[in-house]
Amino acid sequence: MAIDYQGLVTQGLARQISEKIRDAILEGRLQVHERLPTEEELAARFSVSRPTIREALKRLAAQNLIRSRRGPTGGTFVNRPSRDDARGLVATAAALLVSMGEFTLADIAEARQQIEIVCCGLAAQRRTDEQLAAMAEEIRLQRDPALLDADFCASDVRFHRTLVEAAGNPALEFAAAGVLDSLQPAVNLVIFRFRDRRQVALQHERLHRALEARNGEAACAALTDYMNALRRQYRKAQALRAAPVAPAVGGVRG
User: Fold this and answer.
1) Which residue from 52, 101, 184, 236 has the fewest beta carbons nearer than 10 Å?
2) Distance of CA 94 to the CA centre of its chain
3) By the 8 A CB rule, do 111 and 183 touch?
4) 90: closest CA among 183, 189, 188?
5) 46 with 61, same domain?
6) Of 35, 60, 78, which residue constitutes the final position of a domain?
7) End-to-end CA distance of the chain
């Protein structure tokens, strides 16, 4: 068994044990689908109680690194998370950092532009007809004046997610997960009141035409214009947040 059982300190034992097992998984010392020792065996090897081991395993399960199976051939096994599972973990972590104020709107805009510029160049060469059709459908939805704001924001996310997928690079798609699956929706909720929906649809249409023509330079230019407009909306939203609240009129007299 390729787990380091030594070097624990007395505080945070469950966390330390989960980190040791996680390190063994990430470094390949524990293989996908490999069975871990039983709780009793782990408790003996780490010289801790079984409840401590259970807590450590819960931490690993929450990270989708292990799975449990009942029955005669059951036990705890190293998991193989799907790409969607991994994307979900990244998006959840990014959403948490957004809620804590770790990223500014400018940070998010810069990250989005750099990621999507790369994707535009690749997508112009690799996009499929099905991906073009999916993007065209989102543009059609965005032109509907009856579309609710929340649905418009969701369509915007799907359009840009398809752009990233069209780049045909799974590693790049994974790197974009935090921005597209978490940061972009959070930002949309802040700035939607400043968005000209008709203009957004036109910008998306311009980008779509460039990809259809396999013109990477035009696609990058269209995305840059889209992001510049988005930054102006960011500034409006930030200015509104920073504005002092006007005193109430007609208050109660003392």
Assistant:
1) 101
2) 6
3) yes
4) 183
5) yes
6) 78
7) 76
Residue 245 region by backbone torsions, left for phi larger than 0, else alpha for psi between -120 and 50, else beta = beta
Kindly report, residue by residue over 145-179, the tens digit of the pLDDT: 999 888 988 899 899 999 999 999 988 888 887 77
CA 189/CA 195 separation, integer angstroms: 11
- Residue 173's closest CA among 159, 185, 161? 161
Q: How many CB atoms lie within 10 A of CB 30?
A: 22
CB within 8 Å of 23: residues ≥ 6 apart: 4, 29
Indicate whether 195 and 219 sit together in one domain. Answer: yes
**What is the mean pLDDT of the segment spanning 184-199?**
73
Full domain range(s) for residue 24: 13-78
Cα(44)–Cα(143) distance, rounded to whole angstroms?
64
